[in-house]
Design a protein that fits this description.
The chain contains 9 helices and 10 strands. It is of the alpha/beta class and about 280 residues long. Helix 4 links the parallel strand 5 and strand 6. About 35% of the residues are buried. The mean pLDDT is about 95.
């Protein structure tokens, strides 16, 4: 069952969804922390690519929004900067990519991403967040050098959506569960949707999702990878909060405690690989 949050139900049991607009993203100077050191800049980033392999494929669109955030509450203070751009590439887009992104070769023609500007925006941030940062960072690190030394967070994997009652951690489904819909798979649209989502909270939470995420990514992170897994065990992996990383054709799980690594490896040995 979807955990509907902040959405009024009609007498007939139906749910009303709202079209997401930028104005719905809550930004206020009232959120500013009196201690200047507690107000930090974060970058929300999304890319569209022509494939899954950073070594072989290319970024064809980027969306990046930089917010000033009260680190103690996770609430937005101000929108500092934003950037959106397309990139022409030498090879034609596949029909699959056209269907997913709604981008065409004609739309990309003559377009280019200002990577030095992207690099400057990222260098100004304390955190970079993406909804599947494992994928985005694989491309960005080689294109914006300042990315390498930044703390990246993943709103897909580092918020325990399943435990909060949401049946899917996809950005589209999470936004639907929080009462809004939007046109997905265009970079800036996904960034705006992520910004909106991270300012929400479920009924049992004491702070917004962004505060929860920032607390999580400040901890040491380790990635457990289920490589060459038996295909018939994918539901078992999903039920244990592993998520699919298509670029390495494996299921992965981010854990914080060192002891959890051995626990997860033992679980994989017993439940997935059969010793």
């Amino acid at each position: 069952m979807i955990n509907w949050t902040g959405v009024g139900e009609k007498p007939d049991g139906s749910i009303v969804l709202t079209k997401l607009t930028k104005d719905m993203i809550k930004v206020s100077e009232d959120n500013r922390n009196p201690d200047p050191s507690k107000n930090v800049k974060i970058g929300l980033l999304d890319i569209e690519t022509n494939g899954l392999e950073p070594d072989d494929d290319f970024v064809i669109e980027i969306g990046l929004m930089v917010y000033e955030v009260n680190r103690e509450t996770g609430l937005f203070v101000s929108l500092v900067d934003q950037y959106q751009a397309l990139q022409e590439i030498k090879e034609d887009l596949s029909q699959k990519i056209i269907n997913i992104t709604n981008l065409t070769d004609e739309m990309l023609k003559g377009q280019s991403i200002d990577w030095p500007h992207v690099n400057d925006m990222i260098s100004d941030c304390v955190y970079i967040i993406a909804h599947n940062s494992y994928f985005d960072r694989g491309f960005i690190d080689s294109l914006a050098i300042s990315s390498i030394n930044k703390i990246w967070g993943c709103s897909l994997r580092q918020i325990q959506w399943t435990k909060k009652g949401f049946h899917s951690a996809s950005l589209t489904n999470l936004c639907l569960a929080h009462g809004v819909h939007y046109t997905g798979h265009r970079a800036i649209n996904d960034v705006e949707a992520t910004a909106y989502l991270l300012q929400q909270q479920s009924p049992d939470d004491e702070a917004c999702y962004l505060k929860q995420l920032l607390d999580e990514i400040d901890k040491p992170q380790r990635i457990v990878i289920a490589h060459k897994h038996p295909k018939e065990r994918k539901e078992v992996l999903r039920n244990n909060e592993f998520t699919w990383a298509a670029d390495i054709f494996s299921w992965i799980k981010i854990v914080n405690e060192k002891a959890m690594v051995q626990k997860e490896l033992k679980w994989l040995e017993d439940k997935v690989y059969g010793a």
